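Batch manifest, entry 17 of 40.
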Amino acid sequence: MDELTLKPAAALGTKRLSEILNQAYADYLLPIQLDSYQFRLMVEEQDVDLARSVAAVVGATPVGITLLSHRGAEGWLSGVGVHPLWRRRGIGRRMVAWAQSVARESGLQRVRLDVLEQNQGAIRLYESLGFVHVRDMLVLSLAPGAMIPKPKVDGIRPERSTRLLGSFSRFHDVAPCWQRDEPSIRKRAGYMVGVALKQAKQLQGYMLYLPQVNGFAVMDLAVDPAHPQRLQVAEGLLLAIPEMQLAQGGHITNVPTQDPLLPAYMEVGYRVWYRQHEMAWSPTRSSASR
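Output type: structure tokens
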């Protein structure tokens, strides 16, 4: 058997990287299937640094991948996966440790990741490498035809997504997940549909969503924390999607359990699909503990 080697993911090219990602997640609870173009979009939107990401290779065959994103001093690991035939050989551990070393050398102060709560093996691996639980996040889904009607909120109108994002930081009093934080949202703004509530010409809340083949994906829901009817506004925004798409259903990924707008999703018919743990590792804390 050829020796296993680790190398920067950038050395393989996006086509091969998307293939190994698809293979590694084909039997996962939430399967991933991305073509080369979709993979490149993900890399751009989530600030993945392929030169600092890692691929595990046996001979000329990629068998594992771990992606490292960074924004300033903050990092994020995603796509940690090993081909089913090569699991339970320590490859995942070696890749994550490699990424931690790169993060330390790059001066990152914290690295986060998301892991499904059912994936106890991965959670134990991350804990053994110094990651600690930070918070829980929920993947919510609205089943076809499950929307619960609510009183209409007057004044909600379509609005350009780029105009709404100026209020992103002011309206979010709980930090979003990496995939839906402001840098990622801004890079996808051109594809999104925006709706907003304005009162006396002042923006009170907005929602951004992506129409999809069957339904939609909510990308951002934000309401002024000072609004006296914050949840009712959020409910109205969630229902301000064309009736046909609402009837098809939709979803949103990784809503923090502390998000004050979470009850609004539940009130209009969303239900918990999966729960994820957000975990974090600090090179400084790791060094101090040794």
